[in-house]
Structure formats: structure tokens, C-alpha cells
Amino acid sequence: MNETVNIKELNERIQKESSFVDMINIEMNKVIVGQKHLTESLLIGLLSDGHILLEGVPGLAKTLAISTLSDIIDAKFSRIQFTPDLLPADLIGTMIYSQKKEEFTVKKGPIFTNFVLADEINRAPAKVQSALLEAMQEKQVTIGDNTFKLERPFLVMATQNPIEQEGTYPLPEAQVDRFMLKVVIDYPKKEEEKVIIRQNLMETFPKATKILKAEDIIRARKVVRDVYMDEKIEKYIVDIVFATRYPDDYNLSQFKEMISYGGSPRASINLALAAKAYAFINRRGYVIPEDIRAVCHDVLRHRIGLTYQAEAENITSEEIISQVLNTVEVP
Prior knowledge:
Blueprint: H1 2-17, H2 19-31, H3 36-47, E1 52-55, H4 62-72, E2 73-74, E3 77-81, H5 88-92, E4 93-98, E5 103-108, E6 115-119, H6 126-138, E7 140-143, E8 146-149, E9 155-160, H7 173-176, E10 181-184, H8 190-201, E11 212-213, H9 214-225, H10 231-245, E12 259-261, H11 265-281, H12 289-300, E13 305-306, H13 308-312, H14 317-327
Parallel strand pairs: 1-9, 1-10, 2-11, 3-6, 6-9
Antiparallel strand pairs: 4-5, 7-8, 12-13
Helix pairs in contact: 2-4, 3-11, 10-11, 11-12, 12-14
């Protein structure tokens, strides 16, 4: 009985605390037409302190979405165009000799910000990618002998173009695993595209207004972690992740030869965190199985390794996740 009362109180608290979500959506919708899933994913990443990898053809408002988000929140924003000649120093900064002071001083790079857009991350060589991924994981940067903490909130949204493979350096699996979500974006619908054309032909392009401070996001993150998750839901998450590792145990033996490796413990942690953030966005103080199913594809898509046999038979990680969700018992 006591637990029920607590959940009721928690629900009321979360409904109150999550009121800004509607405001963010209104401001985002002023600029971004459609792309509800993209906006939702950005919010999940923001509220659960996770980074996002976006995949989609050029022109689908990936850059516009994160710059609009940084307009809504009074925070700093950096856009870094990744190119094959980029150096780690171009990203994190370097030591510069000052003749006036006769000593080396630190010049900080564009990574020292709240929102980083790493445009076409797969265009830069491995050294640059690992410099960015170290900053993402450790939330700090080392230049010379000095270590600097990065500002909070710190969110990296990296984009990659799935079409071109020439002159690209695909991200290694261990590095892709650092991204909480991998979101695949599709073309807008016909009606949405008409609105996009109209918006872009207007004299002034719509602009979002600042409605939040960085501190509001940090406070909301603490509240997101308080969202209630039942033990049955935890078991459901573990079952889903284990089904990608040991398909035989879950009557999915057809995938045994298709999966080279399944989701890591990071997959389970991120699935739980993303589900809590999704419940928070939907103004709920507890996680339900639908929350897990809603975020599962984005959390697991880049964490399942496929064998050559799977590629030969055109089996994707999407199909495997869908089949896992259809097979694993829902609490």
C-alpha cells in the first residue's frame, strides 16, 4: 500500500517537473517540421546524459535539430565539420607558445561547449574519433599536462551519411557502443514537405526562443533517475539483452549463426535509462513495457554484431530486435 502511495506522489511530482517538455516540443515544432522521432531522441539523450549518433541522407534537418535545441536552452553550441585532414588538436585544443609571457598557454578547442554537433563523424580518421569519444566517456579533456572537466550538460550528436563510403573511416564497434542511441532518420511525409518548402521560402525563417537554462536540464536529469522501475521491468530488459547474446535460450536459434556478438552491459544500462527518460517525456512516474519497446531499436541497433551469413541473407539488426521483442515474454 505504501509503495502505491509513493508511486502516486512520484507521478504527481514528475508531471509537475516534466511540464517543460511540452514547451520544448512547441519551440522545436516552430523550426523542425515533422521528425517527431528525432526530437524525441534528442530529448531522451539530453535527459539521460547520453550521446546520439544520427544516420540519414543529407538535408533531413539533423544539423538544424541540434542547433534549435541549443537555441531553446541557454547553452553553448559548437558545430565541427569532420574532414579527413582534421587533427585531434582541432577538436580538443592545443598548447600555444606565448612570446609575451615566454611560456606555453592552453588554447581550448571547440569541444569545450554544452552541445557538440560532430558533422559526418565517419569522415575523420581514427585519432580524431577517439579524441572525441574519450571526451564523451570521461567528460574531461587532457591538453599537455592539464586535465580540464567539460561543462555540464555535455551532449554530442554525431551524424553520418549512410550513402557515401568513399573517403570515410567507419566507426569501430567499441566506439559506436559509446553512443547511447543510434537513430535512423527517414524522409518527411508529403504534407510535411509542403510545409518545409513554404517555411524556406518565407522572408524570415522561424527561430526558437530560449526557455530553459542549463541548470534546469541538470535538475531534470536527477528527477529522471527517480522514475520508478519495477523488478519485472528490469528482468524484461535483461531478457531482451540476453536474447541477443544467447538466442538459443529464447527460442531464437535461427539467429545463432547470424549474430557475432550481442548487446553489452552498457546496452542494459542505456535501455533502462532511455526508458526512464521516455516515461518522463510522457509525463509518467513509472516505466511500463511499452517504454522499453519504444526505445529498444535505437538503443540496440548499433550494439548487435552481424556475421557474414546474416549480411549474405540480408538480415539486419532491426529484424533481429523486432523478433526478440516479439519472442521475449512481456511482464
